[in-house]
Fold this sequence. Notes:
- By secondary structure, this protein is an all-alpha fold.
- The protein has one domain (3-193).
- It has ten helices and no strands.
- It has helices spanning 3-17, 21-30, 44-51, 53-77, 81-96, 109-119, 121-138, 141-161, 169-183, 185-193.
- Helix 6 runs antiparallel to helix 7 (121-138).
- It starts with a helix and ends in a 15-residue tail after the last helix.
Amino acid sequence: MQVWHYVASVIIGYLLGAIPTGLIVGKLVKGVDLREYGSGKTGATNALRTLGKAPAILVVVFDFTKGMLALVIVYFIAGTVAAQCLAGLAAAVGHNWPVYAGFRGGRGVLVSFGVFCILCWPAALISLGIGGVIMGVSLIVSLGVLVGTVVGLLLAILFVALGHFSPWILLYCVLGAVLIVVRHSDNIQRLLAGTERKIGQPAQPIAG
Length: 208
């Protein structure tokens, strides 16, 4: 495969991932900028706290889909798992630091999960189930996300070791997991302090 295939994969992944779904939905539904409320992020959790359930569902669907779409497009252009992994990482980076929105985005969870579903669907589904249970019991989104991320990474390593998936997916899984953990550094601090926000708590405007 030629170098331009990899370059195109990264560009496509980034530009799709950078589409600021939460920002768009917030503007259209309530005329608000999600970056001025709650966590200041444009992801589904802040959308739920700021906009409500229906708009948050739209953010979930579109953020999840844009990660998958990037890999589908890259598959037809490059046709390799390596290129898809690069596109997936670029999509997560684009979501977190979107060029269309002043490089202020979300934490990359849903777009990363969409990518993970294509690269290693069994690990993705199992991690979703475990993370979902943790989230449902604790009512803390970040805790479910972090546990699900670690579980997904460990399962991906296992499936690759068993020969079920390409070793290339570990490039995405390791770096993607690190990116998610880093983007949740403030959540981790609140979890350790016992002050992390729970589902149902409304978002407050960020003091200017």
